[in-house]
Structure formats: structure tokens, C-alpha cells
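Reply to dn_fold:

You asked what the input looked like. This is it:
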Amino acid sequence: MRIARFSLDGTVGFGVVEGEPSTPEGPVLDIIKGHPFAEFERTGHKLPLNKVRLLPPTLPNKVVAIGRNYAEHAKEMGNEVDETPVTFFKPSTSVIGPGDPVAYPSFSSELHHEAELAVVIGRMCKDVPRERARDVILGYTCANDVTARDTQRSEKQWARAKGFDSSCPLGPWTETDLDPADVGIMCTVNGEQRQLGRTSEMVRPIEDLIVHITEAMTLLPGDVILTGTPAGVGPLHVGDEVAVTIEGIGTLTNKVIKRDY
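and this is what came back:
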């Protein structure tokens, strides 16, 4: 099930996406009553998907991101795979949705894309045992861990490099029926392929990440885990269109713009 969060005439809601772009009528949105983090009902009120504005599929209290979870990416950045997962936060103010612009930060001159599979948490959880990890997941979406690479190198903490406004595009929706063990991840910039990998290449699978994170903190419904990026990260420039495509989910597209002072 693909669950989208949308805006129409100032009203924000959730709906189930039905159909494919190739169908004559195109995808439609079946509006739901309530929200996807509890039992909900379909209203049967359907709207063409192209008539609404898609928003980030969730508004997380926090985004917990994992670094160096693909060996080839760690290698291309000159790092070894750490004995324990590298974790960092991206604030809620960094989150944007499909089609929203990524504003090039004023303090950086080296912006990079990082295509990632994102996990959307479905219920409050703490100290999750590995065998129950899948039970706390609502679904999965596409993410771009946009990074000010020069700032990341020059500052000991990654808060500014990875947490600036618009640095966490998410979307286009949450897919609840995905097996994330081995799906393809691709990033293109202006139609040119930059990254191509599979989730099976992760150093640590999603279950282990959930165990590790919830040993330390409570995850809330709607929180997001970024699971790391494959090799092939590279520069973004003002005017570039960057797209993250994940097999079984869809494509998240954003354009890089000059920051509006």
C-alpha cells in the first residue's frame, strides 16, 4: 500500500495511492479518514494525484541517520567501516517533500547527493528485540541525505553539514508492502546516473539498526531512519535536478536552487 500525505486548497490529509502513471486515468488518491499510524478507513473519495500537492510522507519528530553503512561508500570517502554504526540526527526542519527545492547553503561550496532507503516508524518503541523490529515499521520511502561535504570535513560534528534546512528530501509516499532486504537504489542528476546499488549491500541490515537505535532512545510514530547510501555520491549545483529512485517505491525528485536571502 502506498500512503501519501498531501495538501489541497489548504487542507492536509493522507490518502492511498491507486493506479500507475501508465494507466489512462493515471494514479488516484483515495482519501483516508484519520492517519496511517493507527487504524484508518478509506473514504472512497478519490482525487487525481496530479491535482494535489504531495508533501513529505511523514513529519518526523526526529530523523536518525546512519553513516558508512555501505562498504564501498565508506571506501570512496577514505574511511573504514566502523565497529558500531555511525549515527547522527537531521532535524525536522531539514525535511522537505517531492518537488520541493533544495536550497544551496550559504556556508558551503561542495554540496553532495546521497540516495538512501528511509524507514518510517509506525508506533512508539524502545529497546526493540531484533525479532520484533519489523513490527514497529509502517513502511519505507525514498530519501536524499543532502550533505555539505566541505563543512562535514571541516567540522567535528555533522549537525550543520547534514542538518541545514531542506537537506532531507523524503517521498514520494510511504510503501507499506516492501521487503527491503534486496531492492535497487539509484540516483540521477539531470538524468545522468550517479549512484546505483542494492540494499543487500548494507553492512548492517535494518533490523540491527532498529535494535541499536532503540537501545538509546524512544522512536515515535512518524520518525524516520536513514539507512546509509551506496557508493557514487557526488556534487550538486544550482539548477540541478536530482532524483532518487528505489525499486518497489518510486522516485523522489528535487531541484537545487540558490538560497533566497
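The CA atoms of residues 143 and 234 lie 16 Å apart.
Hope that clears it up.
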